[in-house]
Amino acid sequence: FLPTEDRSPVPLLLNGAFHTAISRTSINVTGEPDNYNGFLLGEIAELLVTDIRRYCETTATTIEEFLSLLDITHLDAEMLSRSDRLQGRFAQILPERIDDIEFIPRVADANSEEAPRQSVRQTVLPYYSPDQPQVAPQIAALFGADRLDIDGVESVGWFPQTSLLEPPFPAILERLGAAALKPEEVPQVLGEIPDDKVQLRWPERDTELATDPILEPLIDIWRTISGQDETLDRFIEAANASAVFPVGRPNDGVVEHVARDDGVQFFLPPQNELPDVSLSGLRFLTPAVYRPRANVNPARQSELIKELSPALEEIWSVNDYT
């Protein structure tokens, strides 16, 4: 068996009784079902997702290491469409062979000793962006091991374990056929999480702001799409229609998250205490995420909210309360 000039589409040496071109430097393939070289590529893909996968599962090989063997993200769109090129044809075959094999660990459930396995077809990826890589693991950890099946959200399935939502694995899984949430679907997903499953994260110092785990990824997503007008419009509409805006005082670290109903306006918390009475049509942002527990000077306050304020204003049209 002599090497050809064709490059392997995955980080493995692919060896087989291929029919080469007369020059013996390349392997001719087509998308036809009776193409011999295409058949061999299918057998290699089958071997990779069956025997090699099972071997990896019985050794110290991690799921991340195995997924790295399936990495076809370096192939561009033009190559992926080419059934007459070895790399392109293999990249078309591999997702077909791995589609329904349950080998991807589901996001951890606190009550489970071992996470169930799911197929690529059953896997849903949170929205992810190289600019904000922390967002996808945050969303999956918040939503947990429940099945994702929400009206208005196209994808149905489960999130994978959070380690598979760190680069480069979301891109690998999506190239293999996993569905990914759109930015405007994230508020709908986070809005389904019960408030008692989410607690404010308090800072070590009283001069810092608390963090709301629902609000945080939404603002990070807003940063990644701020220049995409149509996507941003859909995201803002969904964020206002979903129960994701934290309001009122926390109760043992738990705050209420609400949607912006007709006639309701959102306001920044006043410098003093929130009003003790309910004001019709007014809801106040949870003070701890906007004002630290300790008094700080105006310059420090401005520094704390310099990234938060533009997001609150553009997404929810939050006003000052005077």
* Mean pLDDT reading: 92
> What spatial order of strands do you see in the largest sheet?
1-2
Q: Beta fraction of the residues? A: 5-15%
Can you count the beta strands? Answer: 8
Helix-strand topology string: HHHHEEEHHEHHHEEEEHH
- The N- to C-terminal Cα distance equals 80 Å
Question: pLDDT under 50 segments (min length 5)?
Answer: none
User: What would you call the shape?
Assistant: elongated
The major beta sheet can be summarized as: 2 strands, antiparallel
The whole-angstrom Rg is 25 Å
How does the helix and strand content classify structurally? mainly alpha
Total helix count?
Answer: 11
Approximate helicity band: 25-40%
Looking at how many chains there are and whether they match, the oligomeric state comes to: single chain
Quick overview:
It contains eleven helices and eight strands. A hairpin with a 2-residue loop joins strand 5 and strand 6 (254-258).
Structural descriptors:
8% strand, 8 strands, 11 helices, two-stranded parallel sheet, single chain, 322 residues
Question: Would you write up a description of this structure?
Answer:
The chain is mainly alpha-helical and 322 residues long. It has 11 helices and 8 strands. A hairpin with a 2-residue loop joins β5 (245-251) and β6 (254-258).
SSE order and pairing:
Blueprint: H1 36-57, H2 63-68, H3 77-80, H4 86-98, E1 104-105, E2 117-118, E3 124-125, H5 135-143, H6 169-175, E4 179-180, H7 186-190, H8 215-225, H9 229-241, E5 245-251, E6 254-258, E7 265-267, E8 282-284, H10 298-304, H11 308-316
Parallel strand pairs: 3-4, 7-8
Antiparallel strand pairs: 1-2, 5-6
Helix pairs in contact: 1-4, 5-8
